[in-house]
């Protein structure tokens, strides 16, 4: 139980680190270009984090990976082989879920800030400022996490990129198609002319309609999501109740080889069921 407690505390610490870093603490989140920020981190790790909308300083990445590796090792050493393997797999799974959670939280915050930011740009455009300068001036007071992305866009423009190319790179980095929309609008304006203000105003209207649609869909599917949560928690809840009321029953099953196979099969089916439920709920909002 001592080692299990250490494992759970360590996983909790890793999760807290991820959540804290995803917030608005200026000390933890770098505004440098990704190639500079994570220069000492293997490329496949930075690519995976970027694909999930997560940006972390190298020290936090290594600390989180070290904690997950230590939890997996302690599980294999302190628990029976079957439970140790499941616990090690759970450590990796929780780390992946933490990355997904932080990335989704960060993307949602950026989408919440984007309409107001584009409105600021259009107001500066109405004063006769160029598109590049309007974006650069609007970024000065923009808070994180969108401020981090937009400051990188401005920095890339200063390095010689066109504005639409800078947005294209950030769209690939953050996997936000809204940046692709901005890049397309700016590219069309650069090539064919027209009123960029009108295009940006239309983009703001679309973003706000999309946000309103997502909120309405979330309200309509609230019962479905609660049902899925109850179904996911019911089997482990029943197992915990049975162990608390009659621990000899589950311990006796574990002492028998056929009982071990049944319990391991139940755990595997539970994990598969949770994954299926998560995929089903996620597909509703797509």
TrEMBL record:
Cellular compartment(s): Cell membrane
Residue ranges crossing the lipid bilayer per the database entry: 83-103, 224-243, 263-281
Residues covered by the Type II secretion system protein GspF domain: 117-243
Keyword Amino-acid biosynthesis: no
Top-level taxon of origin: Bacteria
Alphabetized UniProt keyword annotations: Cell membrane, Membrane, Transmembrane, Transmembrane helix
InterPro entries: T2SS_GspF_dom, T2SS_GspF_sf
Membrane topology: Multi-pass membrane protein
Protein's name in the database: Type II secretion system protein
Organism encoding this protein: Spongiibacter thalassae
């Amino acid at each position: 139980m001592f080692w299990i407690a250490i494992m759970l505390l360590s996983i909790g610490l890793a999760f807290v680190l991820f959540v804290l870093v995803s917030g608005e603490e200026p000390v933890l989140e770098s505004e440098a270009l990704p190639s500079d920020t994570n220069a000492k981190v293997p490329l496949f790790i930075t690519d995976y984090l970027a694909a999930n909308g997560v940006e972390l300083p190298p020290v936090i990445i290594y600390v989180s990976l070290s904690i997950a590796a230590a939890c997996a090792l302690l599980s294999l050493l302190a628990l029976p082989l079957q439970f140790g393997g499941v616990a090690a797999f759970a450590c990796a799974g929780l780390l992946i879920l933490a990355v997904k959670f932080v990335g989704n939280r960060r993307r949602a915050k950026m989408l919440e800030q984007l309409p107001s930011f584009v409105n600021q740009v259009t107001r500066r455009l109405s004063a006769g400022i160029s598109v590049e300068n309007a974006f650069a001036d609007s970024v000065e007071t923009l808070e994180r996490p969108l401020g981090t992305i937009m400051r990188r866009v401005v920095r890339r423009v200063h390095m010689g990129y066109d504005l639409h190319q800078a947005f294209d790179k950030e769209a690939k980095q953050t996997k936000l198609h809204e940046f692709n929309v901005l890049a397309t609008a700016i590219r069309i304006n650069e090539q064919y002319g027209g009123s960029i203000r009108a295009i940006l105003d239309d983009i703001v209207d679309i973003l706000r309609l999309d946000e309103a649609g997502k909120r309405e869909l979330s309200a309509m599917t609230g019962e479905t999501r609660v049902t899925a949560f109850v179904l996911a928690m019911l089997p482990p809840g029943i197992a915990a109740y049975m162990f608390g009321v009659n621990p000899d029953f589950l311990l006796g099953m574990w002492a028998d080889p056929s009982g071990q196979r049944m319990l391991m099969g139940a755990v595997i089916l539970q994990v598969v069921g949770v994954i299926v439920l998560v995929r089903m709920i996620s597909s509703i909002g797509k």
